[in-house]
Amino acid sequence: MKKSFVIVLFAASLLITGCTPNEQTQSIQEQPTYNNVNIERNIVSIGNKVKLQTSMGDIVIELDAEKAPITVKNFLGYVSDGFYDGLIFHRVIKGFMVQGGGFTPDMDQKDTNAPIKIESSNGLENDRGTIAMARTSVPDSATSQFFINHADNSFLNYAGAGNPGYAVFGKVIEGMDVVDKIAEVKTTRRSGMDDVPVELVIIESVVIVEE
Q1: From residue 209, how far is each of 79, 111, 201 by CA, in Å?
Q2: Dihedral sign, CA of 5, 7, 12, 13?
Q3: 73-108: pLDDT as tens digits
Q4: 189: domain range?
Q5: The whole model's pTM is what?
C-alpha cells in the first residue's frame, strides 16, 4: 500500500527528493551551478568501494566510476570530508528504499556543495541493492542525499528527457541483510517529514575500502 502511494507521488515529480525538514520537495528557482570544484578535486586514495558503518551493521558498496564518474567523484568528495559521519537514514519505506545522507539526528539539514549533473542515462538500473542519488523535481539537483533500493524499482529508471529517473552509481556487495533490517524499522512523521525511523538509524562513518 505504501509503495503504491509513493508511485503516485513519482507521477507528480515528488519522489525520492532531497528533502528539507518542512517540505518533501525543494523549489529551485535558478539553474543549478554544477559542482565542478568538487568534481575536479584531487581525492587521495580513491577506491571503488566504500563501507557504511551504521548503528545496525556495515554495508559495503561498490561504486561504478566508469558509468557514473561525476556522481562517484561527488560522493567520494563528501566521504573524504567526513560529511556523512553521524548523519541518519531519515526516510525508510520497506519494499521500496532507504534514504540518508542529509540530516543530523536532530533533523537539521547539513549544508551541501553545489548540485551535480544527473547521470541517470548511464545504463545502470534501480535494481534491488543499488545505490542512487536523491534529488528534487529538477533533474540536475542532486547533492549529498542517496538511497539504496530495497526492491527492483524499474519505474525510477531513465526513460527519456521527459522522465529522467534517478542516477544509479553503485551497488551493495556486502551487508544487504543490514539494508533489510533498516527497512524493517518502525517509522513516524517527524519535523514535517514522513517515514522517519522511530529509533535512529545512524550512519556512524563512511570510509573508502582500500584494495
Answers
A1: 11, 26, 22
A2: positive
A3: 999 999 999 999 999 999 999 999 999 999 999 999
A4: 2-24+47-208
A5: 0.83
